[in-house]
Design goal:
Elements lengths: L3 H27 L4 E4 L5 E7 L4 H10 L1 H13 L2 E4 L7 E3 L3 H16 L8
Antiparallel strand pairs: 1-2, 1-4, 2-3
The protein binds zinc ion.
Length: about 120
């Protein structure tokens, strides 16, 4: 194991294995999108996988330094969460929850009671 070529090969193999695993996790989580109500922006939207950090930093770290790139990728993908598709907030609830139903009912009643801007007596 003193040969640097073998060590580099093992490191590349591990990087490809971890990269494939991370790709599989992101592929699997994207198929689990569902409609939610966002408590932060008040919208109903599809969930979206939100990852902290920056893709640009991740790519640079992989290109320049293999090990920090691997660590950075592991951190980004392990800290990812399912958030609001519009504002990326974590404060989401299912559409059939009492909070979402109350907000939806309140919004409908405001639309009904608000005067129409095109209506002129
Ligand atoms: Zn939102």
């Amino acid at each position: 194991m003193n040969d640097p070529g073998v060590a580099l090969g093992v490191l590349l193999f591990v990087a490809l294995l971890v990269g494939g695993f991370i790709w599989f996790l992101s592929w699997a989580s994207q198929s689990l999108t569902k409609r939610i109500f966002c408590l932060a922006c008040g919208s109903t939207a599809e969930t979206r996988r939100v990852m902290p950090g920056s893709l640009l930093v991740e790519v640079v770290a992989w290109c320049c330094f293999l090990l920090p790139g691997l660590i950075y990728s592991l951190w980004r993908h392990s800290a990812a969460f399912s958030g609001c598709g519009k504002c990326h907030s974590r404060s989401i609830v299912p559409l059939d929850s009492p909070v979402a139903q109350a907000a939806y009912t309140r919004e409908i009643s405001q639309r009904i009671s608000a005067p129409s801007p095109s209506f002129r007596p």
